[in-house]
Amino acid sequence: MSRIFIPLDSAAVAVGADEVAAAIAEAHPEAEIVRTGSRGMHWLEPMVEVETAEGRVAYGPVSLADVDSLLEADLMAAGAHDLRLGRPEDLPFLQDQERLTFARCGITDPLSVTDYETHGGLEGVKKATGMSAEAICQEVMTSGLRGRGGAAFPAGIKWNTVSGANADQKYIVCNADEGDSGTFADRMIMEGDPLLLVEGMVIAGLGCGATKGYIYLRSEYPIAKRVLGQAIEQAYKHGLLGDDVMGSGKAFHLEVFMGAGAYICGEETSLLESLEGKRGQVRAKPPLPALEGLNGKPTLVHNVISLCAVPTILAKGGAFYRDLGMGRSTGTMPFQLAGNIKQGGLVEKAFGVTLKALVEDFGGGTRSGRPVKAVQVGGPLGAYIPPSRFDMPMDYETFAKIGAGVGHGGIVVFDDTADMAAQAKYAFDFCAHESCGKCTPCRIGAVRGSEVMAKVIAGENRETNLTLIEDLLEVMEDGSLCAMGGMTPVPVKSILDYFPEAVGRGTAKGGE
User: Fold this and answer.
1) Which CATH architecture has domain 420-511?
2) Contact status, residue 166 vs residue 209, Cβ threshold 8 Å
3) How far apart are CA 361 and CA 289, in angstroms?
4) CATH says 325-415 is which class?
5) 368 — phi, psi (to 5°)?
6) Distance between CA atoms of 226 and 223, rounded to whole angstroms?
7) Domain edges within the chain
8) Which of 117, 212, 303, 503 has the fewest CB atoms inside 10 Å of its own CB, making it the most exposed?
């Protein structure tokens, strides 16, 4: 019996994967259609793979109109066709990656625990069940893992703090409110390899002494909600979740909580407020969530990719993970290529890869064919970086030196037609729209910033207003309660530094 693999990933479904799967199933009801995640080559979606004795053979992008000709070309036997790509792992886009977190994505059935275990899953949690909580935390500390979000805070410090706290209840909370523009790594892993996230959270529970976990999921991800729910059911059925995790005698229970579309709830304390049924507003720190988090109890809060790195760290050892990457930026990062780019998708590479390699070698340059003007790295509050900086290694410290950040690894590409002054105004507009309203620098500063930037664009008292913008950015950066207001200056400053001509100024920083 032939096995055909077709993604259930949102990106593939958006361009017709469900219809393609249905058409092939109708024509060949005897075939086994396996709905997988995406391998991350989004310009080739829907990508259909057929199992052969020599491995899988891929075709793509396959539209509903292509199905008849594919079947006539003997798709089931991997026949010749214009859309035939060969073995996916031989494609340069995949061949040149270092896939750890995304090793199974697009390959396995995301809802099969057997498939997951056959491809290396559960090795980490099996090791963890035979270790002390202190030893588990030490492996995470040794790995050098840092949060795969905006702050890049060392994960091991968080784990040790929660583990050492005295409380009758502790929690593991996964921040799956992936709201940054150009990011989709969390969604891809939750749809394509959800058991990896479950395993990571279970290990976190064992290391920190937590027995309850929540996945705070972005409301715009209905497929992820369905897949996660089914994966959690399978995890309970196979003993990965429950009162006796993998025969360890320790309990861990997990459920999904749906957010309501507020960007601010990607900030960990706003997320916790929302989880408690309150309005999503930032809490003052201290106390830190690691000591007083959900319901006032010690809580470990990580995003999806941070938790999904944990099974590999336990399975292969913290030293293995530490030796990937560069300096204090250890391990791999799933970089997401979006915007005006020819080959958009997900690239998992060890830290140290350059923007040039990501945008030009993996991405193939702009989709429009025009020169790249800038890339925004790290979401809507990330810096705009010009081509003159593309040879810098992608790591936390190097980017911090130029006032930028890696963030969640989102890379949005703009060609030379982009209006950078309009992008500066957009940063203020975005902050004004998404601010929780709790602190004045963010709530008022963003509105005033948008108004003043509009005057700059219109040419009104340009130098005076630009000086006012710079003063305003300083107030927002120093006085905001959280990163929403504190990081809004980052994209604006980068435009003033690297694209001064957009606001009527002279030479760019560094001669760009």
Assistant:
1) Up-down Bundle (1.20)
2) no
3) 41
4) alpha beta
5) -75, -15
6) 5
7) 3-92, 113-322, 325-415, 420-511
8) 117
Q: Is 351 helix (H, G, I), strand (E, B) or coil?
A: coil
Distance CA 390, CA 131 (A): 43
Q: What pTM was estimated for this model as a whole?
A: 0.95
Q: Could you tell me if 177 and 353 are in contact, meaning their C-beta atoms sit under 8 angstroms apart?
A: no
**In a 10 Å sphere around its CB, with 0-12 CB exposed, 13-18 middle and 19+ buried, how is residue 510 labelled?**
exposed
The C-alpha atoms of residue 63 and residue 273 are separated, in whole angstroms, by: 44
| Encoded tokens for 118 | 């056959």
* Nearest alpha carbon to residue 42 among 93, 5, 79, 83: 93
Can you give the C-alpha Rg of the chain in angstroms?
A: 23
Looking at the structure, give the CATH architecture of the domain made up of residues 113-322: 3-Layer(aba) Sandwich (3.40)
Burial 230-250 (b: 16+ CB within 10 A, else e): ebbebbeebebbeeebbebeb
Query: Is 422 strand, coil or helix?
Result: helix
Structural tokens at position 40: 């991350």
CA dihedral of residues 361, 363, 369, 370 (deg, nearest 10): -80
> pLDDT tens digits for 200-232?
999 999 999 999 999 999 999 999 999 999 999
- E-strand ranges in 304-409 read 325-326, 329-330, 332-339, 345-350, 372-377, 383-385
